[in-house]
Amino acid sequence: MRRSDPHLAARVGLWLGVAFGLCFATGLLSHAAQHPPGWFTWPTRPVSLYRITQGVHVVSGVAAIPLLLAKLHTVYPRLFQRPVVGSVRHALERGSVLVLVGAAFFELVTGLFSAAQNYPWDFFFPPAHYAVAWVAVGALLVHVAVKLPLWRAAPEPRRATLSRRGFLLATGGAVAVAVLATAGASVPWLRRVSVLATRSAALPVNRTAAAAGVRRVGDGWRLRVGAREFSLAELAALPQTSAELPIACVEGWSASARWTGVPVRDLLALAGLPVGDVRVESLERDGLYRASTLPAAHAADPLTLLALRLDGAPLPLDHGYPCRLIAPSRPGVLQTKWVTSLEVR
Description:
Sulfite Oxidase, Chain A, domain 2, five-stranded mixed sheet, five-stranded antiparallel sheet, 10 strands
């Protein structure tokens, strides 16, 4: 196999482009679900939609790592050719490669750290990850535009050599091993073979009550819904709904559980409030996710619950006692725990 084989580089690059494309598209969906622009509505069905899209996001990101390394292996001799810049097209090609490789490594490495809930940096991960994704895609588009005429003009080799086939098979095998070893947190039926999967317990807890500063909830706790208040006993006496719903985290892990509680739309009706966007506030004193906005589509869904019980037992404190929000097809960071008020906006 020749390391500068343009057809081999193009084949690996196509696979890498598919992985990057899936990762970028699902990342945009995740961002829109968490920070919806005015024109965007994230659907409530199927109930596992966010679980699926975020799982694809993480799995495609993992698959992109060996593909990126393989792609660099096929082209790295060309990266050190002289002259450094021979023409405008050559400058665009090299500049786009430099930006693309740097942005890609940033995205993949920080994404892996995030999936492991390890943040050894000072910047806030979500906006940085989102911004650099656009940089990577922009560099990729420039690179493809510059190289496409050359790929079309390159003569097709008479036949693939065994070493070339072997390299492609080895690359595919590395991708399969990487996905199988790590994807169990995102794909539940892979958990038995995902030896490196993180956060794959039955129902993990990202933020404990102690970390949130919620150490105990006294008998005086009340849920405020508009101008009306409910005690925990009053909530438990209302008609209850049970539903099997997943918690799907932006880090990629997901797990299903059976939740029992009062539909949010029923609470709004009891308080004489119309269904609309609902601000949900927590007992947590500070933190980026101490409050969330529940879109009207989710507030109207009969499976959007203010949950009081988890798998038939009273809600544990770490899972949001005395009550928490659980809505279908919604990012885990927006499933607010330790809820203290609902207010239609």
